[in-house]
Amino acid sequence: WCCICIYRLCFFFLPGLGFCYSIINGPANATVLAGSEAHFNCTVSVGWVILIWLSNGNPVLTVISSQGAIETPGRFTSQNYTSGNAFTSELIIHNTQLSDSGKIECSIQQPGSSSFAFLSVQVNGSLFIKNSTLTVKDNKTVEIACEALGWAPAPDITWMTNDTFIDKSRYVTQESQGSNGLRNALSILTLTPMDTEILTCLADIDALPNPQNATVTVIFVNSAI
């Protein structure tokens, strides 16, 4: 006889005989850039009949043990893998969109027989500093603005000078609402140059393998010369 637990189904066909199947491993959380693919795996034990994938509560793909995946035209497809007594369904979401963010659920269509994860779709926007070069005389304090437009979420902005991070007390970053649910950020760095230097503004979100960057060369001019 089998134990009653979450994700476990027990069916008894003959007295003294039992058959159970369960979700062995459910999907894991994923963070991806908009336009890329998102992948989720759901592994079930032998005996399953119907597996359904849901996105934010809406069924997007069905897999039937006797015939495979039933796919409709769209951005949701699947791959299937069998290893021993375990079956894995991989849900693939193509060309991910910001609206895809939310709950991704694998269900084998019985009470208490589902597992879920969360998808975060992020948007890599633009980043720029208005001028590529700036000439500054000695003892003059300047403000340099770095603007990030059309991101989701708003990026974390940092500054570097000649490959060294600048203390956060020297710049102020403000976020604002953009269009279509996106976010903007404006970071203003205040400094008094003592020499020519290259300043780099970096914008980062979790889905980016490397921060996006924009640079400006500050040319120091000694007025005493």
TrEMBL record:
This is IGSF5 protein. Keywords: Signal. One of its GO terms (biological process) is cell-cell adhesion. GO terms for cellular component: bicellular tight junction; cell surface. Residues 1-20 form the signal peptide. SUPFAM superfamilies: Immunoglobulin. PROSITE patterns: IG_LIKE (PS50835). It comes from Pterocles burchelli. PANTHER family: IMMUNOGLOBULIN SUPERFAMILY MEMBER 5. The lineage of its organism: Eukaryota, Metazoa, Chordata, Craniata, Vertebrata. SMART domains: IG. The keyword Amino-acid biosynthesis does not apply. Gene3D superfamilies: Immunoglobulins. Residues 15-110, 111-217 form the Ig-like domain.
